[in-house]
Amino acid sequence: MAGGLAALAAACAPGRPSRFFAPGDPPIGVQLYSVAKELGEDLDGTLSAIARIGYRTVELAGYAGKTPQELRAALDRVGLRCTSAHVPAKSFRPAPRTLDDDLDILAAEARILGFDTVIMPLFVTPPHLPMKLDPGEDVRKMVSGVTARMTEADWRWTADYMNDKGAKLKARGLRFGFHNHSNEFIPLGEGTAMDFLVANTDPSLVSFQLDCGWAVAAGVDPADFIRRHTGRVSALHVKDVAATNKPNVLLQMDPAEIGRGVTDWPKLLAAARAAGVDRFFVEQEAPYVRAVLDSLRDNFTYLSGVVA
Q: What does the angle CA 291 – CA 293 – CA 297 come to, to the nearest 5 degrees?
């Protein structure tokens, strides 16, 4: 009896490492961009497969060609909850909604779908530096070319845009955040453009969804970034990067399944916990080495066992 009580006390001791996601608090979510093709082919079957893996929350990247009502019904049928949505500023690809559309409509769709957070998935540029994808043009080359031309004044324009949208969405009951790629880690002043955006946005209006894979691809330690900007990172995109990746800010990544790359997940998740990060979305970056649902299953299994 005494031995059992001692073991229980040790297990409950403050600071003792435990499984980070056990049992589902915080839940492991998934960014549906990973299965965009599959959703288009079989919405109900794909969402059911995601739920069977164990995912409980999803983040949208578009509405899978459905109305908000149709998509919400499909999510409800399999017990998935939508908490966040990627909504571009000025999309150079088809999108059901942008941040420059009527935000009252976006807010109404958010209520239907259930999400309370809007994430801008790519930085927006001032009018004199439009992101325009010409037919046949490589998107990475286009975005990287624009990034290289951005000055501090241009990045300030971007920060002002984010503050403005954050204020307008907050007035409509929605939180606003920004999702990075590798481009935002381009040097700027004494830091990076990403550091500049953090410093020049209002914490009450703008949070950051740190894409850990793109940070690592740029040669940035995501745990260190979270610690340096405590209180500003509210969510993570959870993805891994292969050892073959060469650090760059050109939208180039050698992806890996989670736990099979170079990321120190116990260190990263411990930093996230200490900083109050409470939302985590797995995203498997293309190119896929096998069926993406198989990768998402193994990613979930690995994360479920991480001790941090």
A: 120
Q: Which two tokens stand for residue 43?
A: 């919405």
How do 233-238 and 279-282 pair as beta strands? parallel
pTM score: 0.94
Residue 185 has a pLDDT of: 98
Ranges of H-type helices in the chain: 2-11, 36-41, 43-53, 68-78, 103-113, 139-149, 152-170, 193-199, 212-217, 222-228, 265-275, 292-305
d(CA 79, CA 56): 7
Cα–Cα distance for residue pair 236/208, rounded to 1 Å: 8
Give the span between the Cα atoms of 117 and 152, in whole angstroms. Answer: 28
The segments of the chain whose pLDDT lies below 70 read 1-16, 24
- 145 by Cβ neighbours in 10 Å (0-12 / 13-18 / 19+) ranks as middle
Question: Which residue from 122, 116, 173, 166 is spatially nearest to 144, judged by alpha carbons?
Answer: 122
What's the pLDDT tens digit per position in 18-44? 899 988 689 999 999 999 999 999 999
DSSP β-bridge partners for residue 256 = 240
User: Which pLDDT belongs to residue 169?
Assistant: 98
